[in-house]
Amino acid sequence: MEPKPPSLFDSLLKWYCSESDLEDLQGDLYEVFEERAKNSKLRANYFFVLDVLRLFLPFVKKRRRTTWLSDSYSFNLRNQVLVSFRYLRKYPFVNTLKIGGLAIAISAFLYISDYTRFHNNFDQFHEKKDRIYRVITRVSSEDLQDVTAWSHSYLKELTDEFPGVEQIVRLLKEEDLLHVQVGDKNFKEYVFYTDPEFAEIFTYTWLEGDPETALSSPDNVVITNVIAQKYFNTSSGVVGKTITINDGDFIVSGLIEEAPANSDLKFDLLLPFSDRSLEDWSFVYVLLRKDANILDLENQFAEVMGELDHEYSVQGVELVYEFENMTDIHFSEKKLYDTPKMDKERIQLFQLIGWVILLIALFNYVNLHTTQTLRRLSNINVHRVIGATKKQLFFQFATEAFLYLGIALSVGVLLTFGSARLVGNYAGFHFFRIPLTHSYLTGIFIVYLFTTIALATYSLVVVTRSSASLFEIKMAKVYFRKSLVGVQFALSFAMILTTVIIYQQTALLKNQDLGFDWNRAITFHIPDNVERNKAKLIKQEIVNLNVVHAVSQVESNSVPGMDADVDDYYVNNSIKTKLFEGINVDESFLKVLDIELLVGEFFSEKKGHKPYRVFVVNEAFVKHLGWKPQDALGKRIEAYNTGGPIIGVVRNFYFNSPHQLIQPMIINYDNTGGYTLAKVSSKVSLIAAINRIEGVWKDHLPDVPFNFSFLLTDYEEQFKQERATINVFAIVASLVIALSLLGMYAILLMLRKFREKELSIRKVNGASLEDLFKLFSREFVKILIISIIAMIPLLWYGLSNWLAKYPLRVSLSPTYFALTAVFVILIAGGVIYIQAFRSYKANTVDALKYE
Amino acid sequence: MGSKGKYLGEFEEMVLLAVGVQDNEAYGISIKHKIEEITGRTVSMGALHAALNRLEEKDYVTSKLGEATKVRGGKRKRYYSVSVHGQRLIAELMAYRQQLWEAIPEKAFSIRWTSDKKS
């Protein structure tokens, strides 16, 4: 074989040298090369490279002098656009499929990326976000492992003890709606308590007031612009005005802009921590010094807190302080008393799906586009014969791609914004709340341009290569594409199955027997500043109304759906305390929620039970200690400096939500709780009953608005995220199926076009519709089955991982897999049948009369 | 004559002459070899092709592509020949030189050149 000069530099020469100079220059170089190569190949290569590099400067200039712009034929935008539109009009059906499919995928991508962007940017607006950490507390003992999102409030006073800490700010959300009075208008609001140094850590936009001093006095309040609008009908000049919160007067000292929608710390009013509101535990945020290291801080904490927590460790309880960066909080593990969470994997999965959809759609686009390009091959070849250069063809293709992709993009964007509200309602998510950033838009534009260029280059390659051996190349490409169609169907299979499993799992959780019944149960809160006697009185009067089944007074932690308290108890004369979840309820609790008592009895005033002198536990508790329910009766529990025997065991019930396991639980007797649970009797209408209850409330608390909620509504709220996920998955799954069908359609169309004559001859020889169907499906059946089978282990792994999070879960039955697979294959068969039918109905003469 | 348009660099002149020497058979490599043979210095491909392009622009040489052969990777050669313009230019240049050369007094040069210098 003749030695060849290094191809890389040969192409470099081709690239920079103008066409008119290229041939003889290249020839000269080859000649010298061949001569030198006779002696030494290496030397020849070396000099060739050297020459190519040396020739660069003199010749690259020449290249510029004859750019395509100066050549009127090669760049005539008007004609190119005209031609593009002609092609669009010539094949309306295929073009609609091609561009429409892409537009829908772009729309889906925009939706998905908005959703993921929303969650990925939670609380990212704080300038110091990389240095802000939340202190969380991991509580562990022999019997209980728990982690709370809270930490000791007194950490604030220890700020100077930790060299790595620049500032500490606490935040505490008031559990109840507070009653706000502005002039003669009344409002109910959620408020946050915080420290005066709030603005040193968190970056909010201060519209009015001095961020440094705004919270320095106990009668100050900072409000958001939205609240200002609501209270004063203006969003400026509100500093200095007075509002009344729960009978106390507060002066507005600052006005801040409301936090973006994707923030977990959403508040309307910000009050300074006062003695009244200072709880032992609160959210504690530390600002790390610029030069400090979070690992050092963890050690400092362990050192300082180790001594302070001595009393805990004596009792066998270990507290470990951990730090969560502000930017990670949204995705972190759900803790007790935590802010809302999002599943990181879910977001990543969505992100992946978004890209996959876009890629599938682009791939289908390319397939349909290739068929079309090959259809006009003769046209293009005529162009080439009369002297069109590759450059000119490239610009023609690029113009077309730019226009078509541009149409797809615009239609996609219009579709998205047109349907945002509808889709938002269906998916349970408010889309496009956060502004599009420059980098996002630039990103889209870059992808657009890049795809345009790639598509034009690809078309050029198809056109120039296929002149050699048309049929073979075309067929090879068809087979390659078929395998990718297999991938698409595997993805459809995966999407459908995932949707089905998520649906089944959610249904399982939702229809789970919770161990209690909260139909027709309402709850309302009697403010803390109301005398406890009054609460009892209200309860009694409601009972007397004869519209309720039962009424129970419980503590705030004891309303189903809340996080139970975690406290230490001495169980069965143990020396060390044990941590258990506990709720504090009165004697009617079981009756209100219809919880079953297994053995023993429940609290009863008549039987002489005294608060905190008797205890009831759940089944899980008994099981945890290795007892039988019967054994538990009479065992002693001590807590709160009081103690007494266990008098009963209740059947397990899901106190929090069926997403978690049932924990061992101690039920304390307490008849002074501020929350009231009432179960409306089934004989009266709910509305009438609630109206009468409100009447009782009004008699006793005329100044406080009656504010109740249905337990069931709160419970259903827990499933909102699941339901939204199912809905989104259903949409996405149907999209993926539609796109896969489109992809298959494109391939079949291509096959039909390439084999038009063959098919016609078969028909002439008596092939029936069935024969054609067999012929077509033979191409796909194998690939379809292989790809689906290949998908199964992957899906199995992914789904069982996802399900592993739930203590209560559906089993991954093979039936699901089989049914879904059959469904996918049936759909594919349908598309094949349609194509076979069209081929069968086509006039054989049209294909054969050509010559 | 001697107007600006007619100015030729030393190297360009050499190339023009070499093209003339190989009348009709001159192409890149052969020109390069000729100059290297006579002057003994290495001629870079870039400089040579740049010079040829300039000469062609100034209309002193014309070129045409030859037939494709098996060597040179199948690339055609570009054969150069001196145009009528070029021939006239060479003749003029040579005439100027000759005049100046002759005008040099013999004593001024310590080096004795070839015998035809004297004549």
Give a brief outline of the structure:
The complex is a heterodimer of chains A (851) and B (119). Chain A is α+β, with helices and mostly antiparallel strands and 851 residues long.
- CATH-derived architecture of chain B: Orthogonal Bundle
> How many individual β-strands of chain A?
25
Number of domains of chain A: 4
Biggest interface, which chains?
A-B, 19 and 18 residues
Mean pLDDT of chain B: 79
What is the mean pLDDT of chain A?
Answer: 84
Major sheet details of chain A: 14 strands, mixed
Give the biggest sheet of chain B. Answer: 2 strands, antiparallel
Judging from the principal axes of the Cα atoms, what is the shape of chain A? elongated
Oligomer: heterodimer
Shape of chain B: elongated
Question: What are the main properties of this structure?
Answer:
heterodimer, A: 851 residues, alpha+beta, 4 domains, 14-stranded mixed sheet, six-stranded mixed β-barrel, 25 helices, 25 strands, 52% helix, elongated, B: 119 residues, mainly alpha, Arc Repressor Mutant, subunit A, two-stranded antiparallel sheet, 5 helices, 2 strands
